[in-house]
Amino acid sequence: MSLRAEGPPPLPAGSEAAPGYRVISHLHRSNHYDVYDVFSEERACRCVAKVPIPREGNGRAVRRLLREGTLLRRLAHPHIVRAYDVIREPRPAVILETLTGETLSYLIDTAPRRLPLREVACLGIHLCSAVHYLHRHGILHLDLKPSNIVSERGFAKILDLSIARPPGRARRGGGTLQYMAPEQVRGGGLLGPATDVWGIGAVLFEALTGEMPFNREVEGEEDPETYEQLERRAEPVRSHRRVPASLARLVERCLEPDPAQRPAALELMRGLEPFAG
């Protein structure tokens, strides 16, 4: 297991990730968080605990985690991961439902051939449903990408609302480079529902083709002037895979540089329905 961030080693099996939640195994370490498979004494079942890496200077990550947990506790949607508990003391943690599927990024990377069109269309419908719900509640996800989506027997769930927030002016440093909409990259502009539609489009492009629409690795200090989203349009879907022209165009509309030219989430969902069977 590769640890991407500095800090003390993950908690060993048998220790407490939070009061009443005993570690079964360490699942993942990101830049700011550890994720554990834990056993809940209260529920007598397995759950997932997301905790900040204990180190100096991680206060912002703690605040994001607690905000994410509080948000998830008040949301209820079949395609968004559920939060059971938000713990502030003595160690901040958010307790989430256990998902038994695989991340979409894993499925794309390990599939012997590209994902069937029907599965991709169903995935898109689930994402549109969840994103429409978030938008109805005044929330933008802002970090839609294959690693933040789990597929359980063809049923998609969105993870990681750590940078989710209401529509408004863009802040620098939020999101994942290859999946950020141009207005997210620039900073200072207005972010709205169309920003998440771009994220859905980027996910669908990769699910269909096996390729990210924008994949430049920026070395050293990140200079937004070098971001591909600001330099070119996404390549046509059909340059990577022969799919129905109407489906390709639907995905490409999500990746329009002008947010006003992108479809709304419900319009996108309706356009995907004929391909889902």
UniProtKB/TrEMBL annotation:
Organism: Rubrobacter xylanophilus (strain DSM 9941 / JCM 11954 / NBRC 16129 / PRD-1)
The name this protein goes by in its record: non-specific serine/threonine protein kinase
Sequence ranges assigned to domain Protein kinase in this UniProt record: 21-276
Pfam families: Pkinase
InterPro entries: Kinase-like_dom_sf (IPR011009), Prot_kinase_dom (IPR000719)
GO MF annotations in UniProt: ATP binding; protein serine/threonine kinase activity
Top EC class for this record: transferase
This enzyme's EC code(s): 2.7.11.1
Keywords from the named record: ATP-binding, Kinase, Nucleotide-binding, Serine/threonine-protein kinase, Transferase
CDD domains: STKc_PknB_like
